[in-house]
Structure formats: C-alpha cells, structure tokens
Amino acid sequence: MKATGIVRRIDDLGRVVIPKEIRRTLRIRDGDPLEIYTEKDGEVIFKKYSPMGDLQEFAAQICDSIGKNAGHAAAVCDRDSIIAVSGAPKRELLDKRNSPELEQIMEQRRLYCHRQGDALLPAVDGGEKWHIGVAAPILSEGDLMGCVLILLSDSEAQVGEAEQKLAQTVSGFLGRQMEA
Predict the structure, then answer these.
(1) Contacts of 73 (CB under 8 A, 6+ apart)
(2) Residue 70 in contact with residue 52, Cβ under 8 Å?
(3) Cα(52)–Cα(103) distance, rounded to whole angstroms?
(4) What's the confidence (pLDDT) of residue 156?
(5) Residues 109-153: tens digit of each pLDDT
(6) Which element (helix H / strand E) includes 68?
(7) First-to-last CA distance in the chain?
(8) 3-state secondary structure at position 71
(9) Residue 50 has pLDDT above 80, yes or no
(10) In what helix (H) or strand (E) does residue 135 lie, and over which residues does it extend?
(11) Is 38 helix (H, G, I), strand (E, B) or coil?
(12) Which residues face 114 on adjacent strands?
C-alpha cells in the first residue's frame, strides 16, 4: 500500500473527503460507487466498484465468440479499463486503463465506427497497436456501464455493418444482464 501523506478527519456525520488529486488520479467521479473493505489490523480500504466486474467471465466468453465469428479482436470494458479481451495479446490490453478517446466515445452514449481516413483512436491509454474499429456503449437503466469494442490493428481494414450490428447487439444484451 502506498502512503499519500494526506490526513483527513471524519466529520460528525461519519464522512471523509477524498482529496481532489486522488479522485482525479483514480478517475473517481461524482456519484461513482465505492466498495469498502476492512482488514484485521484496522485498515479501511475504498475501491472503485465496477458492476461490470461481476460479468467479467461472461464478457470473456462473449469476446471469444465475437473474435471467432467476426475475425477481429474483441474487448469489453467498464468505465475505467478493459475487463475482457479475445483475439489480441491479453497483456497489451487486459486491465489497461481506457484511453481518453474511448472515454469520450462512451460518454456520447452512441455507436462509434471508424471510417477510412479518420484518425486512429487507441483503445487503451498509451496503447498504439490496437485502435477502435467499433465501440458500442453498454447502458443499463440509462446509466453508462462500459463498452463493447471491436478492435483493429494498424494494418487491418475497417469493419463493416455486420460487425457494427454485432457490437450493438452484444452491448444491448450486456446492458440487460446488468439490469437483472
């Protein structure tokens, strides 16, 4: 565990303010859920909660299926990082932070499809090999949960309408699973 040197007091309602610098670094936004853990030695640990984490194994199976049927790498991400990937080296993408470009696409809450001549948008922060071919945001009860991605390497052609529909279908399905 890394010490920050920041000390905060609990107020009379039991609240603690998480400093802005830490929230910015960890990408904690207003309204984000935090999971609370305790240790035997008195430590209290706050972790960002990702409802998509519960679907990680299921998302990996879906990515495998997309990869085999579409012939492209596929990934599923939550709002912060890639949680499942198939058809690409996992060490390059799995658990890597989403790129700012991907975050912007997700915030728009609509399908994105790379077109010939468009700038290549990286899937992960600092990643240059894999870019976004299709991004279909996962919405559950109107809330943004993550995104289904069909990824392309720099040398691949663009994706077609079938891949777009596939990503949309899977994102809709995952959104409904989150509601159940």
Answers:
(1) 67, 85, 86, 87, 88, 130, 150, 151, 152, 153
(2) no
(3) 16
(4) 58
(5) 999 999 888 888 999 998 788 999 999 999 998 889 999 999 998
(6) helix 56-70
(7) 35
(8) coil
(9) no
(10) strand 130-140
(11) strand
(12) none
Sign of CA dihedral 151, 157, 161, 163: negative
Task: Determine what percent of the chain is predicted with pLDDT higher than 70.
Answer: 97
Q: Which of 15-24, 37-46, 130-139, 149-158 has the lowest mean pLDDT?
A: 149-158
| Chain centroid offset of residue 148 CA | 9
Measured between alpha carbons, how far is 52 from 69 in angstroms, rounded to an integer?
23
Q: Which residue is listed with tokens 């728009």?
A: 108
Nearest to 103 by CA among 87, 76, 124, 128: 124
Contact (Cβ atoms closer than 8 angstroms) between residue 148 and residue 118: no
Between vectors from CA 35 to CA 34 and to CA 41, what angle results, nearest 5°?
125
φ/ψ of 167, rounded to 5, equals -65, -40
Return the residue matching tokens 């008195």: 42
Q: Which of 122, 145, 142, 147 is nearest to 132 (CA)?
A: 122
**Lookup result for tokens 């990503």:** 167
For 11-119, list the strands marked E by DSSP: 34-38, 44-48, 73-78, 82-86, 112-113
Query: How many Å apart are CA 20 and CA 17, to the nearest integer?
Result: 9
Interior/surface letters 124-133, b for 16+ CB within 10 angstroms, e for the rest? beebebbbbb
